Amino acid sequence: xxxxxxxWTPRVLSVLRIITGLMIIQHGMAKIIGFPVYPxxxxxxxxxxxxxxxxxxxxxxxxxxxGLWTQPVAFILSGEMAFAYxxxxxxxxxxxxxxxxxxxxxxxxxxxxxxTAGAGPWSVDAAMKKA
Length: 131
Hints:
By secondary structure, the protein is mainly alpha-helical. The chain has six helices and no strands. It has one domain.
């Protein structure tokens, strides 16, 4: 059983990266292109702090999905999510469940893990290493 699970570890790393990228890109898309429609992001100005975050999420999410430059991109996204937590959520109180910051923390640490673990075998990064 342990050998079977170990054999799947690199593949599951790729799945974690892809799903994380999909979850992050949706925030960037909502902020920058207005899809999906999310009322709190309806009036985001591109040159605002939230607009800059949206651009980072849009580009960073796409790069994570592809697995291109995964480690530096994931590190930048981890920092952006930490920044988002302390700017938007922490001022509402300490406890993440109560201040709405649970996802920001999860994104932050998932991206921090990806910044050290890499993209996994199903990625552009892995394909470039083989070439």
